């Protein structure tokens, strides 16, 4: 028996040694590519020792340090609900008893309380807390809970809020010095940087998750100033209002939104945007924003060619509000704003954010492109009226084909104006658009009013036809369209 074991052990060692030797040869042998002409210029071969990437950092110390300043927020909201009334033709046992008079308590709106959860973080020892506006909106009671072995609860008061940025400042009172976080610089974030989220997802307070910055400057349709940090750090319902930290332990964002059903896709408001309104929220309870009074739209590739630009950039002015700062500065419909107060306007969404962050009353230089030439105008920034926003015109699809535009147009007669509800009677009414035509593909619709063709005003069908004749041979025709209360440019390809 002992000899059999020994023989088995020797054989096993020999097999292992042989496999190890073979593996060693396989690992250390390199492919000789000298016989393959051009191989070294087609792909990259490793040179020297492979670089082994370091593993993810430990967040233990950061979590210990930061968690005490992150709070759980629970709110109570009173919600009104319309009563369920029976259909008039449906007879109920109440009809015979009450006649036509239905009991009063069945007719009045019903009120009930609803509870919601969120997160927040303390920004100074005096008890000021940042969170999302949607966490505390319409709340009749706000309860803040601090983490730690001695959980403490406080009633909080709203100091200020800004629904457009979805941020709110609330306050609790405590005799002790409260732990506070540091607000960092979100502009220094890079795609791929590690970040840490702490919050109250699904009521599970003190939850720590980590990930990286997936992208910056995301526009998700949440509001006029979208500029979100996208992260794959796990963010769930209840994380709203909580902080997003960098590895220095500084707040770089407020966790605000998620993609329903998505995994690893969360969005945080950059803390630098919050800093712009923070003192006003503390002192005035609301944010004051700059205003110039324009409607703008995206500059597409086709638009850029129509306006004499080498590349699509800037914000195209499709209308100017009479009497507002833009008109006073001399900005006109068809101008393309490429710079505002020294800040480049690369795309549509850059302008509302830049204007909003400018102090009302400040005089700034605005660089525009007009008729293919860049020029500067001086503008005094106004104050944003309540409930108004710098408007962005509807986006239009710009891929077209074919020779004919496919527009059936007519003069705006009193009968047409009344029948179709047209308020603006100066221009040409689009009666219909042929299917699969360049006009339809570009987004022109039945009911639009054509105001200009290639920057020339058209007041009737004759002028409309005259301007189209002048466009013969051109690759593109530029229309200025009035649609409802908005105005926008549409570029239609006249030929392939």
Task: Summarize it.
Helices cover 21% and strands 34% of the residues. The strands form five sheets. The chain has a seven-stranded antiparallel sheet with strand order 5-4-1-2-3-7-6. Strands 16, 17, 18, 19, 20, 21 and 23 form a seven-stranded mixed sheet that branches.
Provide the fold topology.
Blueprint: H1 2-28, H2 39-42, H3 60-66, E1 70-81, H4 93-98, H5 104-107, E2 110-122, E3 128-131, H6 133-136, E4 139-146, E5 152-155, E6 157-162, E7 167-171, E8 182-183, E9 194-199, E10 207-218, E11 228-231, E12 243-245, E13 250-258, E14 266-270, H7 271-284, E15 290-291, E16 294-298, H8 301-306, E17 315-320, H9 325-329, E18 336-340, E19 343-344, H10 350-356, E20 363-370, E21 373-380, E22 382-383, E23 391-392, E24 407-411, H11 414-420, E25 428-433, H12 438-442, E26 449-453, E27 456-457, H13 461-470, E28 476-483, E29 486-493
Parallel strand pairs: 8-13, 16-23
Antiparallel strand pairs: 1-2, 1-4, 2-3, 3-7, 4-5, 6-7, 9-10, 9-12, 10-11, 11-14, 12-13, 13-14, 15-22, 16-17, 17-18, 18-19, 18-20, 20-21, 24-25, 25-26, 26-27, 26-28, 28-29
């Amino acid at each position: 028996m002992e000899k059999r074991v020994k023989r088995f052990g020797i054989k096993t060692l020999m097999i292992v040694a042989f496999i190890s030797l073979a593996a060693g040869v396989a690992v250390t042998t390199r492919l000789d590519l000298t016989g393959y002409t051009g191989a070294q210029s087609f792909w990259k071969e490793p040179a020297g020792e492979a670089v082994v990437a370091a593993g993810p950092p430990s967040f233990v110390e950061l979590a210990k340090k930061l968690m005490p300043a992150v709070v759980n927020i629970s709110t109570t909201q009173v919600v009104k609900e319309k009563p369920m009334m029976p259909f008039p033709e449906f007879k109920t046992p109440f009809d015979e008893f009450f006649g036509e008079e239905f009991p009063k308590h069945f007719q009045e709106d019903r009120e009930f309380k609803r509870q919601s959860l969120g997160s927040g973080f303390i920004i100074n020892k005096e008890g000021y807390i940042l969170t999302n506006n949607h966490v505390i909106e319409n709340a009749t009671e706000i309860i803040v809970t601090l983490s730690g072995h001695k959980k403490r609860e406080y009633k909080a008061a709203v100091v200020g809020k800004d629904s457009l940025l979805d941020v709110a400042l609330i306050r609790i009172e405590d005799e002790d010095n409260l732990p506070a976080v540091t607000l960092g610089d979100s502009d220094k974030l890079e795609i791929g940087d590690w970040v840490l989220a702490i919050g109250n997802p699904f009521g599970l307070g003190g939850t720590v998750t980590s990930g990286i910055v997936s992208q910056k400057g995301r526009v998700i349709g949440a509001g006029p100033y979208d500029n979100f940090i996208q992260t794959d750090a796990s963010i769930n319902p209840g994380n709203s209002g909580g902080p997003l930290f960098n590895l220095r332990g500084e707040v770089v964002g407020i966790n605000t939104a998620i993609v329903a059903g998505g995994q690893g896709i969360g969005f945080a408001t950059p803390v630098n945007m919050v800093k712009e309104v923070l003192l006003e929220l503390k002192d005035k309870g609301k944010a004051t924003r700059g205003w110039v009074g324009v409607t703008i739209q995206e500059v597409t590739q086709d638009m850029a060619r129509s306006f004499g630009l080498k590349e699509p950039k800037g914000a195209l002015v499709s209308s100017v509000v009479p009497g507002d700062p833009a008109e006073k500065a001399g900005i006109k419909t068809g101008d393309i704003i490429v710079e505002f107060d020294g800040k480049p306007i690369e795309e549509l969404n850059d302008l509302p954010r830049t204007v909003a962050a400018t102090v009302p009353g400040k005089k700034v230089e605005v660089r525009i492109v007009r008729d293919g030439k860049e020029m500067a105008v001086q503008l005094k920034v106004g104050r944003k009226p309540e409930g108004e926003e710098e408007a962005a015109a509807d986006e239009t699809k710009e891929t077209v084909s074919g020779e004919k535009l496919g527009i059936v147009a007519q003069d705006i007669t009193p009968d047409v104006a009344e029948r179709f509800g047209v308020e603006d009677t100066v221009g040409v009414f689009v009666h219909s658009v042929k299917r699969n035509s360049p006009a339809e593909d570009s987004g022109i619709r039945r009911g639009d009013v054509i105001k200009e063709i290639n920057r020339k005003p058209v007041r009737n069908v004759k002028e409309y036809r005259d301007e189209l004749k002048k466009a013969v041979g051109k690759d593109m025709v530029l229309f200025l369209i009035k649609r409802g209360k908005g105005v926008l440019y549409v570029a239609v390809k006249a030929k392939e």
